[in-house]
Design a protein that fits this description.
Blueprint (H helix, E strand, L loop, with lengths): L7 H5 L2 H24 L9 H24 L4 H25 L2
Helix pairs in contact: 2-3, 2-4, 3-4
Length: 102
Amino acid sequence: MNQYPVSVLSLFKKPSAYIPIAMSLTALTWCLGGIAAHGVLREPDEGLAAHSWQLLMAGQVPIMGYFVIKWLPRVLRQTLYVLALQIGAALAAMAPVYFLGL
């Protein structure tokens, strides 16, 4: 079944595997940085942090889709592990927005 002997670590070195995680962590940093600098503010006009967060979160979806399309048929289990990390990082970036109502 495994045509390509690929470990999770070698798969994680592919840009389509680690870029979505980096984008989620950057979005989380923007969110927490804004909260640390200005507190929890609900402004009628969203600022740079909110727009950057939105672009980073939306921009990682096509990269994750490419990763799944390319690697899921080749190495199922390893792809699912990396995908779980990607989704976990995205949920971590969404958590402050959801729980603080930003």
